[in-house]
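tl;dr need the bound structure. longer version: we got a ligand (D-mannonic acid) that a collaborator sent over and nobodys looked at where it sits. i said id run it. heres the input, straight from their email, havent touched it
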Amino acid sequence: MKTIANTQLNSGVSLPEYDRSRLVTRIVHLGFGAFHRAHQALFTHEMLQKTASDWGICEVSLFTSEDLITALRRQDHCYTVAEKGAEETVVKVIGAVTESCHPKLDSIEAVLEKMAEPQVAIVSMTITEKGYCVDPATGQLDLTHPLIQQDLQTPHAPKSALGYIVEALKRRHERGLQPFTVMSCDNIQENGHVARAAVLEFARQLDSQLHRWIETHVTFPCTMVDRIVPAATLDTLDEIATLLGCDDPCAIACEPFSQWVIEDNFAAGRPEWDVAGAEFVDDVVPYEEMKLRMLNGSHSFLAYLGYLGGYEHISDTMTDAGYRQAAFDMMLKAQAPSLNMPQGTDLTAYATQLIERFSNPSLKHRTWQIAMDGSQKIPQRMGHSLKYHLAHGSDFSWIATGIAGWMRYVSGIDEHGNEIDVRDPMAKQLRDICDQHGLNVSVVPALLSVEAIFSRELGQNPQVIDAVSHAYQSLLDHGARATVAALSGGTQ
Ligand code: NAI
Ligand code: CS2
């Protein structure tokens, strides 16, 4: 079978220039999804292009992705990243992956033993926000989560990422091996701290000695990760195949921009990712907050209101002057004031660059994709700034409109009466609430009282209820496009 590993590829495709046989699996990555392929694996690859390092990655997907891992194996664990700018596309074959492991294709035991191998120094993760099994509003481990309850009963055969990490650390502890660093690369505010608290709480439920060992020896650096990587489509794969001269089912397209800020806190060493452009800093939190609120907050705003307004992609929303202005205002008027950035950070330049990135017409980033899992995203993307505005008595109409857009979206019915395919771990609970109220503003206080998303403090606040109700009513009366246009100074 012709694959990228055994075929002469088109000229212009950049190939690994290092000897892949020198690589050793020092990183086990959980979540071989779209993002990791175009971000951490690519940074590792670029670092390998420039140094004599031997850091290689074993790819694991705990949920689904059997076909992807099977395809990856067929092509000697190489795959393609296409960086698509507005005008040109750069195509790179990535060689940093040494092997892969999958609970269904191999076994749960095989994944655990891989994580327990002595030379493994980092377990990294892109498992989506819901993969942490924490309460979205508080960031604390949700002990009522079915996966967690099950894993606490059968810790030797886990299903959740936390269960795998704790069992693998237990084996390392028992065997007198060094711990590994747990590095979250998910879009979660203080992702390292959230991962640490969840792992420690899980371990505490099982074994107090193990809990103490993890608390003392394992590190959980926070990371700010950024690169827009839409899910691959058949069209993207066809386009990349033409550029390559060969099919690659594991290929992924992304924007040219990428950023990675990492807290330099590794228990057992780390690669020189800085050689490839990553920044190691002492405190990542301000960068995480900036990115989550300004980029992701406005992304979610555009996703809900864009979908309702009939825009399929983020770049389509950017062709509408009202949405463009509202996104810019959301960044600078609603989100930026809540940030506490190091001196010299230019948030206006950052916002301008974000609008340019969102406008990239080559990236087909669906509003529907970003709208997914809103219950896990809204608290960190909008909740903190909302608290800031309540405390300062300032205008939070952009955030109220974003939340109202989410509420209108999770009703499951669009502005033309068509069904919306709402994907969210809390979809059923949200849908039940929406069904009780129909498309009526009375749904606003009902949804605001879901404490796992809004907490009591926000959900019961009369100003929040008023502002979100006003925006929701406007969506019912005038639709998303007019509501968004009015936010930026137009008329409703
Ligand atoms: P994806 O859907 O392509 O991949 C998700 C991966 O997570 C899959 O490997 C899946 O097996 C795994 N997964 C899903 N649910 C899980 C669970 N409950 N427990 C353990 N593993 C689970 O998504 P993609 O695009 O790779 O994004 C993943 C995460 O990466 C996002 O949720 C976000 O936190 C972060 N991210 C994504 C960016 C993007 O533009 N795609 C950019 C920055 C961060
Ligand atoms: C998006 C992010 O899907 C989403 O929720 O907002 O994945 C976004 O593309 C990335 O965070 C960009 O770095």
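gonna send this back to them w/ a short note. The chain has 20 helices and eleven strands.
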